Automatic annotation (TrEMBL):
Keywords for the protein's UniProt record, in alphabetical order: Disulfide bond, Electron transport, Redox-active center, Transport
InterPro entries: GLR_AS, Glutaredoxin, Glutaredoxin_euk/vir, Glutaredoxin_subgr, Thioredoxin-like_sf
Classification via CDD domains: GRX_GRXh_1_2_like (cd03419)
GO cellular component, one term: nucleus
MF terms (GO), sorted A to Z: glutathione disulfide oxidoreductase activity; glutathione peroxidase activity; glutathione transferase activity
Name of the protein this chain belongs to: Dithiol glutaredoxin
GO biological process, any: cellular response to oxidative stress
Keyword Disulfide bond: yes
Protein's organism: Saccharomycopsis crataegensis
PANTHER family: GLUTAREDOXIN 2, GLUTAREDOXIN-1-RELATED
UniProt KW Electron transport keyword: yes
Amino acid sequence: MISWLYQTFFQPRKLLSPEEMSATVDKVNAWIKEKPIFVASKTYCPYCQATLKTLDELKADAYVVQLNTIDDGSDIQDALYEITGQRTVPNIFIGGKHIGGNSDLQELKASGKLDALLSDL
Ligand SMILES: N[C@@H](CCC(=O)N[C@@H](CS)C(=O)NCC(=O)O)C(=O)O
């Protein structure tokens, strides 16, 4: 139990070498470029759930990476910070353009600009 608690909450993360970090940034940039809609998410995050619900309602097919379910999720989050200056999730890209987080997506929806962005895909 003590060992599980330590490994889950306190085990220090292995930091990436500059080369590994650069490879992760390249991987994330490829998703941004190649996926019409890319969302970095976490399964327990209510803002992420709101974003995915909105995209689903608009029948917008997103490539979703759930960072908390994969081994390199923290590295991808670091790469996203390097690329966008944003560390929080959801981190949303549409048509290669950085949208921001859920509040940014909801503002775009409310202003009618989200439909235009999606129809350009
Ligand atoms: N205003 C942001 C709030 C996003 C936010 O606070 N997300 C939390 C998760 S629910 C987060 O990223 N926390 C830092 C982390 O998980 O590393 C939005 O609308 O997207």
